[in-house]
């Protein structure tokens, strides 16, 4: 049993070593390279265990990874820092300009995708005579429908798209996970038999979590803004930003509000008004540099961790078919969830050239979906949902992440019918 310090040291050492190997020898985008190397290392260890059962390396590494609660590490650890770091760099004026599009994609789009995925998976289960209740299909639809803000913001660093489309993608990803988590909470309560929740109760929960989280982020962000405005001392201002993230997320959790939405709002406030009116050039350089480093380091650890999770998930080989169903199903749901709102909204708020294909293919899923799947209570549906989630995350991060730049370049010169320049 490793101590917490030994565990962190081991994980950071593996991450640093794999990042160096990828940079020097492989040359893939860092986070995709780390995920694939983590996955490859996991598969090699599994093969060693099968071929040489007497060896202990597989059991030792599995025990180390098994000590880490992935859900807690992501949802109550890394996520707050990653979302704040991402929100710091989002232009608030552009976000306001694209608010209708972002709002619809982050709410209606998530609901459409959830419904299509749940219905499709349930239908496949009926055809294959699987004991998969529709309520558990809704759970999978809820956790896989939102695009992952960490993965999407990472992907955007590799893609050259028009500003309006970049704002749509980043804004949707930053806000739709809050909606997705609320829908996931409701779906799990219904599936696990924790009591009936009607439409009114569900809407109340959404308003309290999302709306309350946004108001909390404004309040704490404003307090931090005023504190920064009264001094010019970059170490203290960096400390204030750290306190803002951890304090806001902790209070949101305690009050039953959306921690992700609260830190996103706080990050937008500090990254825009704070940078413009409360920071000197020196402070700006240190604050933004600090959060850029935090973002890069935690991203690297998270994507490696996703790859290494194979060691403790214990996939049943009989569930291999789920990947063949889940990946195209989620892609089809994403296509409808993007194309339908865009077709309606384009009359009032034009989208960038090629927006629909890029939004579809850039809808990457990541650690949040895996974390939510791992948090599910034991049930016959849990192994199926875990396998489907992992398959979709791997496909979207690796395949879509590596090719979305090519899709964006191709679409930039060929506007879809009925769309305008943005």
From TrEMBL:
Gene3D superfamilies associated with the record: 6.10.140.1330
Coiled coil: none
InterPro entries: Cation/H_exchanger_CPA1, Cation/H_exchanger_TM
UniProt membrane topology term: Multi-pass membrane protein
Cation/H+ exchanger transmembrane domain boundaries: 16-408
KW Transmembrane helix (keyword) present: yes
Domain of life: Bacteria
Protein family: Belongs to the monovalent cation:proton antiporter 1 (CPA1) transporter (TC 2.A.36) family.
Subcellular location: Cell membrane
Primary residence: membrane
Organism name: Tistrella bauzanensis
Keywords associated with the record: Antiport, Cell membrane, Ion transport, Membrane, Sodium, Sodium transport, Transmembrane, Transmembrane helix, Transport
Transmembrane portions of the chain: 6-22, 34-58, 70-90, 102-124, 130-153, 174-193, 205-227, 234-252, 258-276, 288-313, 319-344, 356-377, 383-405
Record keyword Ion transport present: yes
Stated name of the protein: Sodium:proton antiporter
């Amino acid at each position: 049993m490793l101590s917490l310090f030994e565990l962190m040291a081991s994980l950071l050492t593996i991450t640093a070593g794999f990042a160096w190997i990828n940079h020097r020898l492989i040359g893939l985008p860092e986070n995709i390279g780390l995920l694939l190397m983590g996955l490859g290392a996991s598969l090699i260890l599994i093969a060693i265990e099968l071929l040489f059962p007497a060896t202990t390396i597989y059991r030792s590494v599995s025990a180390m990874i098994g000590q880490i609660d992935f859900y807690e590490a992501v949802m109550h650890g890394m996520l707050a820092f990653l979302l704040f770091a991402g929100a710091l760099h989002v232009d608030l004026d552009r976000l306001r300009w694209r608010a209708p599009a972002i709002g619809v994609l982050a709410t209606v789009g998530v609901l459409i995708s959830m419904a299509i995925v749940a219905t499709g998976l349930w239908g496949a289960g009926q055809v294959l005579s699987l004991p998969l209740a529709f309520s558990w299909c809704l759970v999978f639809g809820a956790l896989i429908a939102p695009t992952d803000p960490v993965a999407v913001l990472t992907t955007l660093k590799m893609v050259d798209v028009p500003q309006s489309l970049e704002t749509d993608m980043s804004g949707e990803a930053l806000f739709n996970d809050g909606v997705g988590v609320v829908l996931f909470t409701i779906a799990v309560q219904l599936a696990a038999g924790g009591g009936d929740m009607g439409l009114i109760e569900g809407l109340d929960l959404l308003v309290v979590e999302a709306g309350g989280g946004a108001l909390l982020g404004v309040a704490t962000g404003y307090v931090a803004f005023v504190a920064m405005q009264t001094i010019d001392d970059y170490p203290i201002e960096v400390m204030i930003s750290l306190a803002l993230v951890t304090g806001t997320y902790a209070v949101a959790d305690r009050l039953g509000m959306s921690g992700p939405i609260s830190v996103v709002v706080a990050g937008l406030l500090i990254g825009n008004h704070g940078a413009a009116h409360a920071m000197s050039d020196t402070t700006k350089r240190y604050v933004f540099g600090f959060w850029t480093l935090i973002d890069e380091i935690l991203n690297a650890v998270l994507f490696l961790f996703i790859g290494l999770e194979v060691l403790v998930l214990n996939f049943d080989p009989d569930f291999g078919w789920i990947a063949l169903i889940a990946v195209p199903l989620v892609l089809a749901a994403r296509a409808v969830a993007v194309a339908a709102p865009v077709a309606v909204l384009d009359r009032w708020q034009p989208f960038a050239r090629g927006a629909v294909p890029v939004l579809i293919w850039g809808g990457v899923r990541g650690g949040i979906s895996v974390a939510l799947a791992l948090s599910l209570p034991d049930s016959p549906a849990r192994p199926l949902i875990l396998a489907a989630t992992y398959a979709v995350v791997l496909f979207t991060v690796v395949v879509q992440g590596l090719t979305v730049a090519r899709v964006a370049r191709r679409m930039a010169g060929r506007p879809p019918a009925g769309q305008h320049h943005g």
